[in-house]
Amino acid sequence: MIIDFHTHNFPDAIAPRAIASMVEMLRHQFVPFGDGTLACQLADARANGIDRCVMCPIATKPSQADVILRSALEIRDGARGEEAARVIIPLASVHPADPDFKAHLKAIADAGIPGIKLHPYYQGFRLDDPTVFPFFAAVRDLGLFVIAHCGYDHGFLNVPMCCGPVEIVALLAAVPGLGPRFVAAHLGGREGNPPGATDMLLETGCLIDTACLEILQDDPDAIRVMETWPADRIVFGTDYPWNRQRRLVEWVKTHRPSAADQEAIFRQNAERLLGLNG
Question: How, if at all, do strands 88-90 and 115-118 pair?
Answer without folding.
Answer: unpaired
